[in-house]
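pinned: reference chain
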Amino acid sequence: MNEEYLLKKINLLKIWLLLTTIGLVVLGYKTFSNKLSTDEITVKRLNIVGENNEYRIVISNETRQHSGRIEGKDMPHRDRPAGIIFFNNEGNESGGIISLVDSKNGKVNSGMSFTMDRYNHDQVIQILNNEMYDKGEEKIQRGFLISEFPKGAKFFNLHNEYSEIEKIEDKDLRREKTIDLLKREGAKKRIYLGRNFNNEAGLTLYDQSGNPRLKIFVDKDGAPKFEYTESNGKTVNLIKAIK
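pinned: its structure tokens
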């Protein structure tokens, strides 16, 4: 083996290494470039962020789901169903889509919900499907719900006060405080369109306190009804009244 032969082999090796390096660079660029094209991706959580790296969308399973962010503050860790959480351009949560099945001792509660939040607060618009099954019996609610919070309501006022109430050991006092808090700071139903747990399908309108005032619906027996509820709680069937 002469020197000239060794030099040829070394030169061929250099060329091979150069071509291999170029190939790896091209492959790496295609794989990790800003634009990735693929047919399928399997992940436990996917974060979509804005140019400022703030969250815009989080798609996650229930174990890794985002706890929520309001007024720039992350909520403490809490159990949340798998789904999609939306964030506005300020990085705060603005709604989501969730799905959950809870099955215990033969009882099944299956639900799915698409919600939209009030700015820096909780949900005020919801499309929902809630199904409960127990020993051959079923209760189903499906519909569209619009709610509203009192003017000037703040999420953390409600959250912090409720956290303190939960520390009260007296069950009756805790319940009384909770009802009072929700009356002052909680969301109130305003419009519901859909099927309720009583198998009634129709439209219900509520006053600013969340009390039902007008209902147009078909009851579980198929009878059409048009009801008006007075401020004293008395309900009048307007169809019968017209007749």
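why pinned: Residues 1-31 form one domain. The radius of gyration is 29 Å.
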